[in-house]
Amino acid sequence: MTMNTAVASDFRPAERIESLGVSEILAIGARAAELRASGRDIISLGAGEPDFDTPDHIKQAAWDAMQRGETKYTALTGTAALRTAIAGKFARENGLSYSASEIIACTGAKQVIYNAMMASLNPGDEVIIPTPYWVTYSDIVELCGGIPVLVPCAAEQGFRLSATQLREAITPRTRWLMLNSPSNPSGAAYAAEHLRPLLDVLLEEPHVWLMVDDMYEHIVYDGFRHVTPVAIEPRLKERTLTINGVSKAYAMTGWRLGYAGGPVPLIKAMTVIQSQSTSAANTISQAATIAALEGPQDFLAERAEAFRARRDLVVDALNAIPGLACRSPEGAFYAFAECGGVMGRQTPDGTRLDTDRAFCAWLMETADVAVVPGTAFGLPGHFRVSYATDTETLKTAMARIAAACATLSDPA
Ligand code: PLP
Q: For the chain: N or C, fewer Cβ within 10 A?
């Protein structure tokens, strides 16, 4: 008889995930849920998804697809019908001309980014990321062995990267510049006049590729005209990946469908990565996305107008609180406020608020409002408010933050 001498060993994570933690946004959401379960009325302004529902005609298209039996594997990059719909969208809305072979559909735009970095980065390759940034950017770069080169873009410069900063950040190891407009978390957007100088720098640096994330293009305010870089500078088309998706504009975060247009060699390499992870995107979501892109678009402007009213409410309320300051963003559904003016102040129980993290944790514990510290997006001294929720809830949340801040005092 042989004795089983095997003993359980501790789980040993791969080195590649050592520097990555669970997203701070998720951790804040979990704490909010915990407090809620204990009976507290927590308002969560942390999540990055619209409170609107997916429009009915999109749900209907999904049902129709199931009825037609569109429930089997498809081509890795998506059905021909979907890629035609995406090409049509790029042509109609962005002035970009992509053929079906230059398009890939993935399980969310997050997977587009993951595929692109997995397919292109070698250890030590650098990726320039204007900061504040969506944390997924730097985490994916690190996961793929690359080095995120974080370039701080302060509120005074509209949270936008300047041409000088870009020039200084580029080295022979630079592979990509990641540009997101309108931005998560700052809501800042690049108009054509902001993009032109950046694109001129890129023209001088042929080894640098451009990843463009246009996820929030339809959520813009006050007549802001969203324009995608390749429409301004077609000479960059052969080294640009233009990313978009249905999550935010069509309120389809759970459907998990994102897509991109780019040069064939890159799309092919991304397809190799995708073939060994998820295969093609979900067929039902592919059909729903065709309906989203080709169906009625009038509700987009209506929803953007609803977001604008909420933006004004939140930005005005934050600016009325002594110690806080908030730039009015051009788009997305986030306000990125400075909290430097409350740093060093003292709560009624004598705690000094020295960091944005401490401030946000205190708001959660005492004001029952969950917001995300700027540190989570690479820019301390700020916090992000997601205003993708109804007006009454936003009013209550802002009143709670104001009341809490009014209790702060200067240390004796
Ligand atoms: N890009 C940005 C800037 C985002 O904020 C998000 C989601 O938060 C995404 C992409 C990912 O969207 P998807 O749901 O398609 O993965």
A: N
Between the CA of 111 and the centroid of ligand 1 the distance, in Å, is: 9
Listed in sequence order, the DSSP H helices in 249-355 are 264-275, 283-294, 298-319
Considering only CA atoms, which residue is closest to atom 10 of ligand 1? 109
pLDDT digits (tens, 9 = 90+) for 138-186: 999 999 999 999 999 999 999 999 999 999 999 999 999 999 999 999 9
Which helix (H) or strand (E) segment holds residue 42: the answer is: none
Q: Please give the residue range of the domain that contains residue 221.
A: 56-294
Write the DSSP symbol of residue 355.
S
What does the DSSP assignment read for 326-347? E---SBTTEEEEE-GGGTTEE-
Is residue 1 a part of any domain in this protein?
A: no
Task: Kindly state whether residue 191 falls inside one of the protein's structural domains.
Answer: yes
Residue 215 CB–ligand 1 contact under 6 Å: yes
108 lines ligand 1 (CB under 6 A): yes
Q: What are the phi and psi torsion angles at 143 (to 5°)?
A: -55, -35
What are 30-79's pLDDT values in tens digits? 899 999 999 999 999 988 888 899 999 999 999 999 999 999 999 999 99
- Six-digit token string for 342: 């409350």
Helix H or strand E segment including 243: strand 240-245
Q: Is the CB of 247 under 6 A from ligand 1?
A: yes
